[in-house]
Design goal:
single chain; about 200 residues; alpha+beta; Adenine-n6-DNA-methyltransferase TaqI, Chain A, domain 2; 2 domains; 4-stranded antiparallel sheet; 6 helices
């Protein structure tokens, strides 16, 4: 089944001019640069803008998926928590499921899978600024098993992501400890004795 058949895909809000943040703005704006390497963002750090009128379909909702349509990686992000008064700016694409037969957590895994990413790469347009057109995403074939299997896949991916995060943290601490030890070894004996005595 094609993605366009099970989900609505909308391009983020297009501002006519350069974004002008306002402290008293009535809406938060989420752009590609606000997403960290894990695909998360901090609401308090998003710029505010004032808009008199905006269509309700531009608002970000819980269980929406965001996909980066420009760049070298076209990874998707799942909005797991409830958000209010947040609009996304182009070139982010907002994907909202229209069926209960597909779990959002499964779909985000599917879109980020290397085989899906390869399919998206075949449809990129542009030379200097490459992007995946909305139509190519709507025509993307999506295979989905039973809800039970979808849930299992999503849970395994969640645990794997947690494992990767912990391993990264361990690696950082090991690197820091190693550099500290090597720095101490590089110091003259007098410096080391003085350091120990100071403690």
């Amino acid at each position: 089944m094609k993605l366009g058949q099970i989900a609505s895909i909308r391009l983020g809000y297009s501002f006519r001019s350069k974004l002008q943040p306002m402290n008293e703005g009535n809406f938060f704006v989420l752009s590609m640069k606000d997403l960290n390497h894990s695909g998360n963002f901090e609401l308090s750090k998003l710029p505010r803008v004032y808009l008199k009128k905006i269509n309700s379909e531009n608002f970000l909702q819980q269980n929406d998926l965001l996909l980066k349509s420009r760049g070298r990686l076209y990874d998707a992000v799942l909005i797991e928590e409830k958000v209010e008064d947040v609009i996304i700016s182009s070139p982010l694409l907002r994907i909202t499921l229209k069926t209960t037969q597909v779990l959002p957590s499964y779909l985000v895994w599917y879109l980020n899978h290397m085989n899906t990413q390869k399919n998206l790469l075949r449809n990129i347009q542009g030379t200097s600024v490459q992007m995946v057109p909305k139509q190519a995403l709507e025509e993307l074939e999506v295979f989905f098993p039973s809800l039970e299997k979808q849930h299992s896949i999503a849970e395994i991916e969640k645990m794997a992501k947690r494992e990767r995060f912990l391993l990264e943290q361990i690696q950082k601490k090991q690197n820091k400890l190693r550099e500290c030890i090597l720095f101490q070894l590089a110091q003259p004996d007098k410096y080391i004795r003085e350091t120990v005595n100071d403690r």
